[in-house]
Amino acid sequence: MQQDLESVCQQISDAYRPEDLFGVEEVLLPPETMCEFLERRYTTFKALLNPGLEELEFRELAQEALEKLEQLREEARQKIGRFHYGMIGFDLPRPAVKKAFSVAHNRYLVGPRLDGTDQFDRFQGFLERDGQYLGEVEIRLASNASENPLLLREARAIDLLHQSAVPQWKHLPCLLDRFETDQRVGLTTVLSTD
What's the rounded Cα separation, in Å, for the pair 161 and 139? Predict the structure, then answer.
């Protein structure tokens, strides 16, 4: 019992991000499914910590681990809600770029231009929220105002596809924000890890 408790406490203590403790799924799942997965893992860890709270000599160790477990659980829930949980490329050092724009609480740093089409321009982008660098995104901007409907249809299609749990979930981009500049529509997305 003591060895199990110490092992669990050490595992929780060593976790830097929620993914370190709860695991990273190879497949991007719908948020409801990810939350169910998270709750099962959380319940397992919590059950292992509770006996330590009853024994005086392990109470402090177990209490510290329980507090960190709660913190990691909340962080995981927030990441799942933002579609960031387990995303490759997130939590990297902030890149040095000169152009940036904001949409609500998200700040996008505009990186180099990527291959585009006649209908839209593509840029490598980076997402920051509340001063924290979260990772790489793709920024697409209509080439001119007449191409706006194309990007708006794409955004609507992505929204519709994300409303149901489909096996192809991991292949879909995740739409973060829509914006407009110079009468042109833009989209920011996180691409699948495939």
Answer: 20
Q: Where are the beta strands (DSSP E) in the chain?
A: 99-103, 106-114, 120-129, 132-142, 174-181, 184-190
Whether 74 and 111 share a structural domain: no
Give CA separation, 79 vs 65, 67, 90, 185, in Å: 21, 19, 11, 26
Q: Do 104 and 178 fall into the same domain?
A: yes
Give me the number of domains the chain comprises. Answer: 2
DSSP state letter for 170: G
pTM for this structure? 0.53
CATH number reported for the structural domain that contains residue 104 in this entry: 3.30.200.20
Q: What is the per-residue pLDDT across 79-111, written as a single tens digit (0 to 9) for each? A: 887 777 776 555 555 566 779 999 988 999 998
Contact present, 49 and 5 (Cβ < 8 Å): yes
Q: Are 53 and 63 in contact (CB under 8 A)?
A: yes
Alpha carbon 80 to chain centroid, angstroms = 6
Cα separation, 116 vs 164, in Å, equals 29
By the 8 A CB rule, do 192 and 85 touch? no
Rounded Cα–Cα distance for residues 68 and 72 (Å):
6
- Residue 68 belongs to what domain range? 2-81
Query: Is 49 part of a structural domain of the chain?
Result: yes
| Residue 115 token pair | 């291959």
